[in-house]
Amino acid sequence: MTAKTDQGSTPRHLLLATDLSARCDRALDRAAQLAHEWQADLVALNVLDPAASPDQALAWASGASDEQLLHVARQQLAHDLAAANVPATLCLVRSEDATATIRKTAASTQSGLVVTGVSCNETLGRLLLGSTVENLARSLSQPLLVVRQRTHGPYRRIAVATDFSASSRHALLTAARLFPGRELILYHAHTLAMSGLADAAPHPGVCVGIEETECAAFLAATAFPEGVKVRPVVECGAIESTLTRYVREHGIDLVVMGSHGRSGLMSLLLGSTAAKLLDWLPCDTLLVREPNATA
Predict the structure, then answer these.
(1) 13-147, CATH topology level
(2) Pairing of strands 284-288, 144-147
(3) DSSP secondary structure code for residue 213 in this structure
(4) How far apart are CA 1 and CA 276, in angstroms?
(5) Cβ burial 52-86 (10 Å sphere, 16+ → b, else e)
(6) CA distance 46 to 102
(7) Domain boundaries, the chain
């Protein structure tokens, strides 16, 4: 059953960025599900870069024109979208800068969400497992949904990672706006100071108690829409390992994270830890940039 949605608060346009690889099929299915749930228009974007795809490179080296390559890509994209059973506008662009093209297309189509997948060898594979995810998280105005799992219906179990910063508050409110009617799990992982020195480190229970107090204050200071339910969870340890374990043990469908923060999440999404989490987390990830954040 489709979850009830406040259409006034959800995106009217979605952008699917796909490299036409098999792994991006999951992103396509999720984009189609969200477009149906939100009754939103879907735009499917493929950035044609012959150098990034072996078969396109071979065709290009054999004398195929950009028009011929775009025609083949358009046929495949149209075939993939037909199986998704959702109306979509196709957009194919010849460019060597996928990141800039995604940003430009998202802006021109007034998309409220950009959806993409994780591949291994194609353009978006390098994009999402390398430095471009930093560029998108820093500069993309819209939330970026990175799809890993198969789609089995609407997102039900959603965790929002927090370091109690303004950025993580914005991510939490974004999750509440996009997915109304679902309980949100506000997740915080606290790393003990001087944890390598047993005598110097506070007892984990004491630290968790302190963090729970701060978590309660964070929630009390957040202006939620009516009816939003948030359940806080505070654990001790490094967020890369604790959050991954929590996701697996509790069947989390989606993790939402802000792209800037005052501590852990700031470095988390601005360096190698972002790629590590995208690789480790067994669920989909929504990256939300704070509106006034600077790159």
Answers:
(1) Rossmann fold (3.40.50)
(2) antiparallel
(3) H
(4) 34
(5) bbeebeebbeeeeeeeebeebbeeebeebbeebeb
(6) 9
(7) 13-147, 158-288
For the chain, state the CA radius of gyration. Answer: 20
> What is the CATH code for 158-288?
3.40.50.620
Give the residue among 94, 88, 122, 118 at the shortest CA–CA distance from 15: 88
Judge whether 13-147 and 158-288 match in fold.
Answer: yes
Tens place of pLDDT per residue across the chain (295 aa): 344 444 458 999 999 988 777 778 899 999 999 999 999 999 999 887 655 555 554 454 455 566 766 777 777 777 777 777 788 888 888 887 888 999 999 999 999 999 988 755 444 544 444 455 566 767 788 999 989 999 999 999 999 999 888 888 999 999 999 999 999 999 998 876 544 444 444 455 545 677 889 999 999 999 998 899 999 999 988 888 899 999 999 999 999 988 764 444 544 544 445 556 777 889 999 989 877 655 5
Quick one: CA torsion of 245, 249, 251, 256, rounded to 10 degrees?
A: -30
Side chain identity at residue 60, one-letter code: W
What is d(CA 141, CA 104) in angstroms, rounded to the nearest whole number? 11
With a CB cutoff of 8 Å and minimum separation 6, the contacts of 235 are: 187, 188, 189, 190, 208, 242, 246
Indicate the Cα dihedral angle 257, 258, 262, 267, nearest 10°.
70
37: tokens are 């749930």
Interatomic CA distance for residues 56 and 134, integer angstroms? 27
Place of tokens 């879907």: 42
Q: Is 51 exposed, middle or buried (0-12, 13-18, 19+ CB in 10 A)?
A: exposed
